[in-house]
Specification:
Blueprint: H1 2-7, H2 17-25, H3 43-52, H4 66-70, H5 97-103
């Protein structure tokens, strides 16, 4: 899910189920360029995804509890104590059905 949200496509996708299975077993993922510019993925985000996709559940990120996940560099600066009461960096504008129809 993290891969799809950050990259915009499904991980391991392919034209046939056999290719999907091969992509999963071979850990064949397509990554955007690593960096901090638009269209890139940060090294912290890539590392987070790779650690979440670790096949060994005993060493997978989070196997030692939620704090292990929270301490990952991707989440640097997140105030976990006050996260529910903090303001999000972006609040999407709610649109009515008529406003959506006008866009088309």
């Amino acid at each position: 899910m993290a891969y799809e949200l950050m990259i915009g496509t499904r991980p391991f996708c392919a034209n046939t189920i056999e290719e999907v299975i091969d992509n999963i077993t071979e850990f064949n993922l397509e990554w955007p360029e690593i960096g901090y510019d638009e269209g890139m993925i940060s090294p912290e985000a890539k590392d987070l995804i790779c650690q979440l996709l670790n096949k060994d559940f005993m060493t997978r990120l989070g196997s030692e509890g939620a704090n292990q996940l929270k301490e990952h560099p991707f989440f640097k600066g997140v105030d976990w104590v006050y996260i529910k009461s903090s303001q999000p960096p972006l609040v999407p504008k709610m649109m009515t059905f008529s406003e959506l129809a006008e866009i088309k």
